[in-house]
Amino acid sequence: MREVKSQFVDLLNRNRQNKVYLALNCVMEKPDMSTGEVVTAKPTFRSVVETIVDGSDVSEIYSVAVDKMMESMACFQILKFTEKPIIDESIQEYEYHEYEPQARTNLNSASEIVINIELRDLFSQPSESYLVFEGRLTKNDDTAYANADAVALTNNGIMYLFNNISYRLSNQEIESIHHPG
After folding, report:
1. What is the domain partition of the chain in residue ranges?
2. SS3 per-residue string spanning the chain
């Protein structure tokens, strides 16, 4: 790097008003301790992009670029480039978010109920999602049941309240179920 400094600084002095970066192509070898085999890597280490303007100290720009490349090279040497990288794709946590229907009118009417979920910075996992239905169970004459009254709902009884349920993603229907109960 010292051998080319004067040539590089001279080149930068003659070519101002340009963006430059240094790139160092290397051939690095490291013995594999378990097999004795020599493993070769051919990385390229780059400095950050600098804009050379009038009055720039190109010697300083060169020194900073070399330092950045040497730092990258040291990090590369510390890493075991003989092993495959370990990529952790596990989910760290789940968060449940509450969404309400768009029209907050009487849900007893026979109209469409739409729950629009705008996920700009979240990933949804529909298989882990659920719907919570809250309401009051009343008799035919709109009076409430007493605590002692025995009430039984059929299995999956809430689904009988709907004649169609559809799941859409980006306004494209993914799945639709008619008469889900």
Report:
1. 2-78, 89-181
2. CHHHHHHHHHHHHHCCCEEECCEEECCEEEECCCCCCEEEECCEEECCCEEECCCCCHHHHHHHHHHHHHHHHHHHHHCCCCCCCCCCCCCCCCCCCCCCCCCCCCCCCCCCCCCCCCCCCCCCCHHHCCCCCCCCCECCCCCECCCCCCCCCCCCHHHHHCCEEEEEECCEEEEEEECCC
Whole-prediction pTM value?
0.39
The answer to whether residue 67 scores a pLDDT higher than 60 is yes
Q: pLDDT per residue over 21-32, tens digit each?
A: 777 777 777 777
140 vs 83, more confident: 140
pLDDT at 66: 81
